[in-house]
Design brief:
By secondary structure, the protein is an alpha+beta fold. It has one helix spanning 7-33; strands at 55-62, 65-68, 76-84, 93-96, 99-103, 112-119, 122-127, 139-144. The strands form two sheets. Strands 2-1-3-6 form a four-stranded mixed β-sheet, with no helix packed on it. The chain has a four-stranded antiparallel β-sheet with strand order 5-4-7-8, with no helix packed on it.
């Protein structure tokens, strides 16, 4: 009776390839289903709206000022787009009633990032959380009424 010398080697390789292929497929599926799609939701609290789901407010950031595209706010959901028109890295953070430490990722010059929050009646602080930037003037208070 002849036994093929290749049978013992091929079976483990095939099993390894099948396992590796299944693992890669699972990783790909997990990456595709994570949702981010390159968008940034800067809020760290639970139950916050998805990035881009609210009224869009562009906040132009330069050294060392913040300039929101609007000054009047009513309660509701807002997507704050931090547009870095400066020459150094900035970011945008929102704090106020019901919103704590919601922020964008760090934004390199010429780029933007979004943080979406639901604002209630009250005063909110928009600021750049990069060390020293808030103290240098990148701090804006808005009133929601």
């Amino acid at each position: 009776m002849a036994i093929s010398a290749h049978t013992p080697r091929t079976a483990p390789r095939t099993a390894l390839r099948t396992t590796a292929g299944a693992f890669c497929a699972a990783l790909l599926l997990a990456a595709c289903s994570s949702g981010g799609g390159g968008q940034t939701s800067g809020s760290t609290s639970t139950g916050t709206p998805q990035a881009g789901s609210g009224t869009r407010v562009t906040v132009t950031e330069t050294e060392y000022t913040l300039k929101p595209s609007r000054t009047s706010f009513t309660p509701g959901t807002y997507s704050f787009v931090a547009d870095n028109a400066g020459k150094i890295t900035h970011a945008l953070s929102v704090d106020g009633p019901g919103v704590e430490d919601a922020r964008t990722k760090d934004v390199p010059p010429g780029h933007d990032a979004t943080v979406t929050v639901t604002l209630k009646k009250g005063t909110y602080d928009l600021y750049c959380p990069i060390d020293g930037h808030k103290q240098a003037g990148m701090d804006q208070h808005i009133q929601v009424g």
